[in-house]
Amino acid sequence: MTMLAGQVAIVTGAGGGIGRGIVDRFVREGARVTAVDFDVERLEALAGLYGDAVRTVVADVADWDANRAVVETTLEAFGRLDCFVGNAGIFDHGMRLEAMEGANIPGAATELLGVNLIGYLLGVRASLDALRASKGNVILTGSFASTEPSGGGILYTISKHGVVGAVRQLAYELAPDIRVNGVSPGVAPTVLKGVSSLGQVEQSAVFPGTAALLPLARMPEAADFGGTYAFLASRDAAHITGSMLPVDSGLAIRGIG
Ligand SMILES: NC(=O)c1ccc[n+]([C@@H]2O[C@H](COP(=O)([O-])OP(=O)(O)OC[C@H]3O[C@@H](n4cnc5c(N)ncnc54)[C@H](O)[C@@H]3O)[C@@H](O)[C@H]2O)c1
């Protein structure tokens, strides 16, 4: 018996990296998936791979109408929705507050928070009725930066701290019908898009030297995170809500030794 047999999920940021790993794992566990990304080329690599089990939708998660359209497409294609995974994200490549011109901060904050935090809220809001009907669940991607400094710069860190608040508040608001949890990856060897209003382009998500600092001494693959999401979406997690599950290669227990 697969973990997610008969379930239907929406996964954002599904074109690559951790999101693609979630799609692959959910399909292996028996789910049908709407895979959402605004990167057309990345989605094309996924389209057709799983036949009718995966529907790809090009959408900007920071846009309300786009989120509504994603849910409508999902219900038309699959008839139900059991899990919304908010995972799309952009990175500030560790930029410090003092490195930003003051006049650029409002635009940069709007851009980054619009994807990493508001995009999640829009996706959950658009999914609410369908998730209530299925007694479904929400999973949001946090980060090591959800609890610690230096996992990113100031904008990324406040966005990922905000994910913890979103998970806890939404778990409170949506109980008993909908469970809400998060996954906090430590590091994964992906290439994250930057804040375009700051002139940032794609760059490795892993800071130089990080691999040598991991207590578990192994850099995970992006695909390694999918199982944690599948677990949280499954009936085995029926009594878990409001939790952030760290998958951080031991970063939080490095200590000072
Ligand atoms: N890679 C890491 O080390 C790491 C660590 C902690 C948390 N994370 C988080 O994991 C999540 C996935 O990131 P990843 O590392 O797999 O990087 P990634 O760049 O491979 O995946 C992110 C995806 O989101 C998409 N995306 C970005 N903005 C979008 C928008 N407005 N609308 C739709 N799609 C959009 C991108 O096109 C990309 O395919 C992010 O939330 C990231 O913050 C990553």
Oligomer: single chain
Low-confidence stretches: none
- Main β-sheet, spatial strand arrangement: 3-2-1-4-5-6-9
Strand content: 15-25%
Structural notes for this entry:
The protein is of the alpha/beta class and 257 residues long. The protein is globular and about 50 Å long. 36% of the residues lie in helices and 16% in strands.
Give a short synopsis of this structure.
The protein has a single domain, classed as 3-Layer(aba) Sandwich (Rossmann fold), CATH 3.40.50.720. The protein is 36% helix and 16% strand.
Topology:
Layout lengths: L7 E5 L4 H12 L3 E6 L2 H7 L7 E5 L5 H15 L4 E4 L18 H30 L2 E5 L12 H21 L4 E7 L5 E2 L10 E2 L21 H8 L10 E4 L10
Parallel strand pairs: 1-2, 1-4, 2-3, 4-5, 5-6, 6-9
Antiparallel strand pairs: 7-8
The structure holds nicotinamide-adenine-dinucleotide (NAD).
List keywords for this structure.
single chain, 257 residues, alpha/beta, Rossmann fold, 7-stranded parallel beta sheet, 6 helices, 9 strands, globular, binds nicotinamide-adenine-dinucleotide
